[in-house]
Amino acid sequence: MSQDTTREIPLPESRRADVVGRLAATVDRLRAQVRHGHDATAARGLVELATGVLVERLRCGPSAAAAQLAELAEQAGRTRVELAAEIVDEAARDELAEAARWSATAEDGVSLRLRTAESGALAAHDVQAVAESLLRHALAPLGAVGVAVWSAGGDSSLTLAGCAGFAADEGGRWRYVPPGVAVPARAALVKRDVEWVSSLAAAGVPSIGERDVPTGARAALPASTGGRILGVLEVCWPHPVAELAPRAWRQLAALAQLCAHSLDSPVAELAPGEDAQLCDLADSLRDPALVLRPHHDGAGRVVDFRIAHVNPRYSDLGGRPRGEVVGALLLEAYPLAAVDGGLFERVEHVFATGEAFRADRVDLTALVGQVPLTAALGVGISRVGAAVLLVWHTEDEATRLANLLQHAQRLGRIGGFEENLATGEIAWNNELFALYGLPASAKPVPVEQLARHAHPDDAVLIGRFLRTLLHHNRPASTAFRLRRSDGVARHIRVIAEPVPGPSPAVRGAYQDISAQHWTEVALAATREQLAHSEQQAVESTKLTLQLQHAIMPPAQNTLSTPSLDVAVRYRPAEKDHLIGGDWYDAVVLPSSQILLCVGDIAGHGIEAATSMVVLRNALRGLAATGAGPSQLLTWLNLVTRHLTDHVTATAVCALFDPSDNTLRWARAGHLPPVLVQGSTATTLPLITGPLLGGLANPTYDEATLHLTPTDTLLLYTDGLIERKDRTVEESLARLLTTAARTTSTLDQRLDRLLTHSNSDTDDDTCIVGVQLRTP
Question: Among 494, 490, 498, which Cα is nearest to 509's?
Answer without folding.
Answer: 494
